[in-house]
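Reply to dn_fold:

You asked what the input looked like. This is it:
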Amino acid sequence: MAAKKVKTYKNYINGEWVSSHSKKTFVNCNPADTTDIIGRFQYSNEQDVNDAVAAAKAAYPAWRMMPAPVRAEILFRAGEMMIKQKEQIAQDMTREMGKVLKETRGDVQEAIDMTFFMAGEGRRMFGATTPSELANKFNMTVRQPIGVVGMITPWNFPIAIPSWKILPALICGNTAVIKSAPDTPLSVHALVKILHDAGVPKGVINHISGEGVEAGQPLVQHKDVKIVSFTGSSATGRLISEFCAPTFKHCSLEMGGKNVIMVMDDADLDLAADGAVWAAFGTTGQRCTAASRLVVHKKVMKKFTAKLLERAKSLRIGNGLDAKTEMGPVINESQMKKILGYIEIGKKEGGKLLCGGNQLKTGKYKNGYFIEPTIFGGVTEKMTIFKEEIFGPVTALIECKSLEDGIRIANNTSYGLSASIYTKSVNSAFTAIRDTYTGLFYVNAPTIGAEVHLPFGGTNDTGNGHREAGQQVLDIFSEWKSVYVDYSGVIQKAQIDD
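and this is what came back:
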């Protein structure tokens, strides 16, 4: 039988599909079955970055001057196209990234939602008008774009997260260069092609694929890139912040999490167990909002643990394209080894392995990167698996004595992205909302499930204070200008006594 021909995908620069100057490509494989080759992608280098940034810089003046409602019409067309292509994009994403088809459909839907939401902002992007302290004078604020945006996106939400960056940047009047994650370039390719087909002018959006050192770092440090928007690890985000600091380049960082579900003694334990399984093992635990800590009241720990284990052990693991699969593979071999390493650390430090902990290697799993859903009991605040982000299907049970103790444990982290509480007490719920220091909070729901019209982001090591999604994302990609219009016909001196 003849070998299946593997398609080669190109970079998108200045409105054209072009090969890398490196003349090198890399292979993109299905993490559920590494014999399934998705495509070859460009191994981009600094010269490719320079071409992409130059194209974005040249396109900026005309795109900035295009009225925002007209820019919005292009985005609206892109959203309509994405609806028609949703199933194909989701199928490709499951092959590329591994998560189950229901979740990749949700990933694409999030991009669709963001497209229409940002298209709506083209007729809003409200400023403020306010009375002046002087007679015959008018005061207002307006937004203005900034220039070329450099974007670096992760593999776990390979079309949703790029949409969170590209669409608000474009609606504000900026141009963009995005470097996709090496594990998931096809999803970004699909989004960029839709924007091309919808009529985004050449140079306004540019896509390069490749590694961080060869392509990501030159993009971040390029003198003509005015904003850097990054989602990924805290370690990489810290480096990007350092690269941006010397020139005071705008920098938006969305990084890790060590998220917590608190289960109180009055909780609906069936609901809480369902929520914990979804938050811990949805996307195979590869979400920045995944619940890797389950803080449970001592009075219900035994009952909750039994319900949690029953659900976790019943999860069907396999290829995400199989409709029966509930949890897919982890993204690659390196990540698999890292997760298995954390499991060994958890056991050595005294955590009680209640279920899972193994790589699945035989039968339908032999060509993929599969790890069982893993739950540790008896975890203390001193343990590594309590402190560090694992980014895999591993969660830890920690006992608390009271609501106040649970909140204290929840806050005992260097991160601060998402938290949740299960309780029937409105008093407990609002106390936890007030006292848990995170950017996202859920009541009687998992730590995952953000919606595009609310701001997304966290505290502490999770980010640098910016928020994606919602109207607040416009503050990343625009600058405020205060405008004073004096029609008195005389020089009026504000704050000066006459």
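The CA atoms of residues 180 and 209 lie 5 Å apart.
Hope that clears it up.
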